[in-house]
């Protein structure tokens, strides 16, 4: 067990360096097992992940992109309990994983089948109030320079496939 954990730790450290990512991509081509650090690492995280969604009716007419509110404004009580933190972290980690797969040339067919993509799709479906005539839904990942900042500078990073919506599952 020590050998396994030591090897995993060594690969994780190596994966933080640009030079090492080519080797770790061969060992873990879908980036499922080797984590990347962004807090105290040499390249700290400075962006947030945002999600916008739109739906399509039976005629294929799309609604305008609408921001999916995930980040909760901070409150004093969050020092003790912050229930929404898991959702925020899930979205951020899944978005980072999808972007990592894109950078590593993973085919879109594999990305759409990944746990990160499926988790984001579930978040979108659970939190979205869809119009009653919606037949399909699509989401887009945006990268912004932080919450509370105007979304005008947000950069599109990934657009999902169109997904069928079951009638009666509109969350309104």
Q: Please give the alpha-carbon distance between the first and last residues.
A: 49 Å
**Rg, alpha carbons:** 18 Å
Uncertain ranges:
none
Largest sheet, in brief, is: 5 strands, antiparallel
Order of helices and strands: HHEEHHHEEE
The percent range for strand residues is: 15-25%
Share of residues in helices: 25-40%
Mean of residue pLDDT values: 81
Number of domains: 2
Counting H and I runs of at least 4 residues, what is the number of helices? 5
* Class from helix and strand fractions: alpha+beta
For the secondary structure, the number of strands is 5
Shape: globular
Structure, explained:
With 172 residues, this protein is of the alpha+beta class. It has two domains: 1-44, no CATH class; 46-164, no CATH class. The protein is 35% helix and 17% strand. The protein contains five helices and five strands, in the order ααββαααβββ. A hairpin with an 8-residue loop joins strand 1 and strand 2. The radius of gyration is 18 Å and the shape is globular. The model has no long low-confidence stretch (mean pLDDT 81).
